[in-house]
Amino acid sequence: MGKDVIIACDFSSAEKTFEFLDKFEGKKPFVKIGMELFYAEGPSIVREIKARGHKIFLDLKLHDIPNTVKKAMAVLSGLDVDMCNLHAGGTRRMMEAALEGLTRPDGTRPLLIAVTQLTSTDQESMETDLLIHEPIDKVVMHYAENAKKAGLDGVVCSPLESGKVHEVCGGDFLTVTPGVRFADGDNGDQKRVMTPAQAKEIGSDYIVVGRPITAAEDPVAAYNRCVEEFVG
Ligand code: C5P
């Protein structure tokens, strides 16, 4: 499982997505499809991007009773995505059921990654809304360990947490990290950011990069720069 740059294709339609991907000509970057694009276009967007030869991270963050998640994961696996995700907060039993659903009859399956606590959740909202009173760092690591015990492949986390996750869950446990910005770029609404080179240094396995590539004047050059800094 090699290091790679995943482009967050946060577009509202297939048309805008293909207009963007067409710029890459011969190249086939790993792309992330999120809820907005998936709900706008349905499974056909996954099939079409796959048919163009891209790897796909389908970021739908499933969270439901184990049986429902298992069946939904079987559908996603049939779409031939390369990576998908769920909320670790759905419990270990839900994660185990998800893995079962995801595994194809021939034993292959997409990578399965857990979201721990969303980065939009802070200590205060976790305590007030969720009645969780442990320090948030401890909660994140505990959820990561649960994901590992359930047999998942890794977690989505801040690049700042990658080192600790590897310490706790082992070097092979994948860290998929958004919040990446170029040293000379605009941070937008991301607060705790790292450059691709720093993310590499700290041990992230995949970086998820959206606007620094999608909103760049030359997206292909921005992507190439990410790959050079992160993969080398
Ligand atoms: O444009 P930008 O590089 O900020 O995009 C980052 C992508 O990663 C977006 O699709 C965003 O939803 C996603 N993401 C994130 N932070 C998280 C989890 C996912 O920015 N904690």
Task: Record keyword descriptors for this entry.
about 230 residues, 11 helices, 8 strands, about 15% strand, globular
Description:
- This protein is of the alpha/beta class and about 230 residues long.
- Strands 1-2-3-4-5-6-7-8 form an 8-stranded parallel β-barrel, surrounded by 7 helices.
- α4 packs parallel to α5, α7 crosses α8 and α9 runs parallel beside α11.
- The chain binds cytidine-5'-monophosphate.
- The site of cytidine-5'-monophosphate (C5P) has 15 residues, from β8 and α10.
**Count of distinct strands:** 8
Portion of residues in beta strands equals: 15-25%
The largest sheet is: 8 strands, parallel, barrel
Order of helices and strands: EHEHHEHEHEHHEHEHEHH
- Low-confidence regions: none
Principal-axis shape: globular
Quaternary state reads: single chain
Helix segment tally: 11
Binned, the helix content reads: 40-55%
Structural class label = alpha/beta
